[in-house]
Every structure is written in structure tokens, then in C-alpha cells.
Amino acid sequence: MKQYDVIVIGSGMSGMTVANKCASKGLKVAVTDELPYGGTCALRGCDPKKIIIGATEVRDFAQRLAGKGIDTVPEVNWKDVMAFKQEFVNAMPGKIEKGYKHNDIDTYHGAARFISNDSVEIESQVLKGDKIVIATGARSRTLTFEGGNYALTSTDFLNLKELPKSMIFIGGGYIAFEFAHIARQCGAEVTIVHRGPRPLENFDKDIVQHLSEATQKMGIKLVLQTNVTGIKKETKGFTVVGEKNGSEVEFMAEAVFNSSGRVPHINDLDLKAGSVASNERGIEVNEFLQSTANPNVYAAGDAADSNGLPLTPVAVYEGHIIASNIIKGNSRKAEYPPMPSVVFTLPPMASVGLTEEDAKKTGMNVKVNSKAVPEWFNAKRLNTEEYAFKTIIDTESGTLVGAHLIGPGVEETINFFSLAIYKSIPVQDLKKMIYAYPTMGSDITSML
Asked: By the 8 A CB rule, do 350 and 200 touch?
């Protein structure tokens, strides 16, 4: 048995943050992961996805400017894009492990499971830790209906050697929309099947409507209020069976992807043996991100039932909180700043702060500015039809409490709104600022 001050289960961004910060203060640290080091974001999520999106953005831009200075719209070479993406992915695990070893962190490769309140077993080797941090991230939700095992995951999509000619995404969340837009720009026939009345339910409904319209204009079929009940394997491809308005419906494609959501990847940890309480949202933690049932244990990122959104920067933030509390004792509470979220579609959609519905539920008196502005210069110069915003202002304080955008560049503009909300900058002060022109940011004053 080996003894450690800190054992970190999971080598994603939150686990990496905890391990390196604790080691920098002289604590003896071990880290383990059953998958290559790097976590979802670096290896199976946001980073490789954004590399692939880069090629589709070029094609999208060229399509919009075709006949307006651009004569030829390029095709996306899937194999070349995937090879470029893989250069980044292949380099990451070794780079991370090298960093761990440089910081005198012991590295393990294997699944961990609790055997007591302060001990875990990894590949028959027992480690005992004063503190144990669960940072195992999330996994795709299991499809329990017949044939659910035929559905591929987001990880599978990001490793496709060849792009199927047709595909179906089960579930209408951000993964479905992002990958559907990628696939469509690469020439695939795409269908999104969603059980609810509207997709992307956590985003502002009016801005989502703009994205839904843009999605359908691309040629993507968006099927709502349809509950998938099974997948059947055919000679060529698959048939997805669903129920819509009491009637059976079917959709056929070469490949089916499970985009029904992600759940904490904690089921194999034998939490009961470690006296660690959990629920469907993850490890139950207090304001210090410490287990409510076992004070030896902390949890961060997608594995924790915290108030943080399932976003990489939030996981990093929570990693810093936990490291501070391990090093100094529970002295730092998780108090979340505004958390901007982006759906990297074409065009992208971005959101931060309260939605209009949530703001009104609080009883707050708000002013809502909402408008589609395809006639604005920035939309015209980029020849895009989808450019819209909704800003929500607390009339009592005169500050911004929510911003929701769709259009080119909004993934960057949203950060400015995040800062304005975080620092409670009065809207009148924002309007007095001088912005570089012509930039997407120069539209901010007209959105307030």
C-alpha cells in the first residue's frame, strides 16, 4: 500500500489543476485515469471539435460570399481535417504525463474504485490518501431502449475515419447541433430527433428559434416532439423508430449518434465502499466542493453535483477551489462568476447570465432588448441572415443581468457581456465606451 496526501481520480482539466497545484505546495500526489491523460475537453471534446469546426467555418464563410468576391467554394477534406486534429490529440497525453513527472506526481493508468473511506484500488494496487479527489468527468447517457447499443457516441464522431453519407442524432442538445452542422457542411444528410417541443432547452428560446431556422435552412431535418423507442440494424445502415403524436415514425441513415445528454462518470467507482453520497447529477458536495458524506473526498467538474455548469473553464475553477481547500483547510467557497456558454454552430450561439424567463421569475424589474438585425453593417458585410440579440437589464440597478446572441463572432462578444455582468458595470457606462470599428464588439452599444 502506498500513502499519499492527495489522490486524484481523473486527469482532465479539474483533476490536472488539483494535482499540479497541490504538488507545487509540497504535497505527495498521485493521479490516475483509465483513459489517456487529458480528459474529455482535450482529447474527446471541445478542443478536437473546434479544430474540425475551423474547416467548416472556412467553407461557410466562402458560401456566404460566393458571387460577392469568392468564385469557388472549397470542399472539406474529412481525412485531412481528422489528421490535423489528431496531431493535437496525440501530443496531449504524453505532454501532460511529462508535466506530472516534472512536478513529482506519481502517475497511474487504470480505473480506480473505493475500498474504504480513504483508500482506492487501481489494477490490484492499493493507494491510501488523506484526501481523494473525484474528477472523472461525464459520459454519454445510456440508451435503454432496444437497439440502443447501435448508437455511436460523440467520441466516435470525433474519430470517424470516413464521414457517413447520412446520420441521425438522437437528442437536440448542443452536441447534436454542433456535430450536425459539421456533418452537413461536409456533405452528409443529417436528421436531429428530439423528444421535447424545442431543442437546446437551457438556452433562451427566442435565440434558439433563430438557430433552429438557420439549421433547417442548411438542409438539416429537425424533428421535434418525437420519442425514440428503438434502433434496428438493416443491411445497409439503421432504422430509428420513434413515436410522434401517438403514431410510429421511422428514420433511416448510415449511422446513428447518441446525443441524448451526458451523465457523471461515477458508476464504477464503488462509491458505497467509500461512503460517498451521490445522485444522478454527481457527487453530492458542499460549498467547499467536499463530499457531504465523506470529508476525505472532494469532487469537481462534471462528476460533481455543484452549482457550476458543465464547462471546461468551470472545471478548472473548481479544481482551484479544491486545491486551495486541501492546502489551507476549507477556507474557499465555490462562488461562481457569470458562466458564458457557446454552441459552436454555423452561426454560433452564445449565452451568459439570466434568460428572460428566469429574470422575470425572480420578480426583478427588467428591460428586455430583443431584435433580429440582419440589416446591420456587420451582418451585411458578412452576408449573413442570422444575427440577433437579446439583452436583459435590471432597471433598478441599471446593470446587465443576461445576454443571448446568435451570429458570426458572438463566441467572442459574449465574453465582454460576461465581464459587464460580473463587475456590474452600469449600462450607461458601457454605452459611453469607444469601441474599435468596424468590429463585432462595436455593435454592443446598440444591443443595450
From this structure: no
Q: Quickly tell me which residue has 501532460 as its cell.
A: 96
Give 447's contacts (C-beta < 8 A, 6+ positions apart): 369, 389, 391, 403, 405
Write out the H or E segment, with its range, that includes residue 419.
helix 410-422
Please tell me the distance from the alpha carbon of residue 345 to that of residue 322, in angstroms, as a whole number. Answer: 33
CA distance 390 to 402: 8
Counted residue by residue, the chain has a size of 448
Are residues 242 and 148 in contact, defined by beta-carbon separation less than 8 angstroms? Answer: no
Alpha helices in 4-153 (DSSP H): 13-24, 39-44, 46-64, 78-102
Distance CA 153, CA 258 (A): 5
Q: 409: pLDDT confidence band, cut at 50, 70 and 90?
A: very high
Nearest Cα to 27, choosing from 97, 105, 82? 105
pLDDT tens readout for residues 126-175: 999 999 999 999 999 999 999 999 999 999 999 999 999 999 999 999 99
Distance CA 278, CA 293 (A): 9
Cα-based distances in Å from 350 to 203, 264, 272, 328, 389:
9, 24, 39, 36, 10
